[in-house]
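Take a protein:
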Amino acid sequence: MRLETELKKSLKSLLQAMLVTLTLLGAAGALAAEKISSVRVWNAPQHTRVVFDLTGPVSHHLFTLDNPDRVVIDIPQAEKTKALDLVDFKGGPLVNVRSAPQANGDLRVVLDLERAVNPKSFLLAPKDQYGHRLVIDLEKTGATRVPPTQRTASRPKSFSDMGSGRDIVVAVDAGHGGEDPGAIGPSGTREKDVVLQIARRIYHVLKAEQGIKPVLIRTGDYFIPLAERREKARREFNADLFVSVHADAFDNRRARGASVFALSRSGATSTLARVLAERENQSDAIGGVNIDHNDEMVTSVIYDLAMEGSMEHSIKVGSMVLREMGQVTHLHKKHLEQAGFAVLKSPDIPSILVETGFISNPGEERNLRSQSHQVKLSRAIGQGIISYFDQHPPPGTYFALRKQQQRAQQHRIARGETLSEIAQRYRVDLTALMQYNRLDNTDLIRVGQVLRIPNS
């Protein structure tokens, strides 16, 4: 009986000790400070983004100070690390980062600035390769809005006055950027890098074509939300065409080939198209966007009505681009596909998404890094766009006026006329006249036949 009593006392003491230990461990866990594991800075034309990678969820309080200009962030129960002393400022408005623990247990981080900014902050939950993040966007203050390109032009009286026809504006958008690297190839090639290189090459191909004015949506390594990309094309550039440039990735490394997509609002045309659209649409969550859905339902009805016409032309230009790309690279499918890509949802601009190849395929990853392959791709994409506008020029443009003049310069052959006489009358070279009309010799012409007259 005595032994049993002693055993009960020992067991009770052991349980009490375990309870105390668990309580202390729980308290220690509750008080454990989160750490800033790294800091990254991305400079864009209108803002600078500062991203704090965190070991766990935090709250924060942000305010500004002037003379000198500073942004102050207080993070409760956070711990100072060396990451705050190793920030690469990259030449933007951020000139220094200081940090120190406060008496109340907060960590205070101070961003020293060379000029005043409009700061915005938000927290991001873990996504893909990233954990918890605190994002600070330092937006320019008093930025002047770039007026949209004017689409109206007075109709010239003659082809010699065609310079007043406006340029066709093509917005070329390199996907991903900044926080969002896009797909990563087996050798570490980042999608955001190669598509920016290809987008720049497309820009130069189109710039060399009279009557086309290309613009780049993303000019450097920074992130732009999907909706902002298409809105920039519409409101800032008043674009006639939006082209988003990407590189595919798939679990199966044998998947290969380039693709061109237009928007679909009724489902994807293939399983892969659906998977790719879902992956590309995750860009906002990866790159970091503070999303507000309040007005989506209001605008959706208006957008649906306006989008029908632009989707028809998206399919036409996309098919022409795909055809040209098929001359220089392997195609994943020989027809244009459709899926619900968020970046293509412009209501009044034909929009296509070009997947330049599978970066997840080792062979295509090497091609996408190759300068010669990038040149071939960019020329093909550019030629497809030019061919589309040759056939479907927007009213009032150089292309439209040129097409009108070409239609006007026609000659119906009368009895007794010869090609040499016609060439002399219109002051054009005989060989050029024959080639322009695909004539092998002068014996093939007939009375009533209509000839197109090339520009002299």
About this structure: Residues 34-140 form a domain with the Immunoglobulin-like fold (CATH 2.60.40.3500). The chain has three domains: 34-140, 159-391, 409-452. Confidence is low (pLDDT under 50) at residues 24-30, 148-162, 293-302. The longest strand covers residues 34-43.
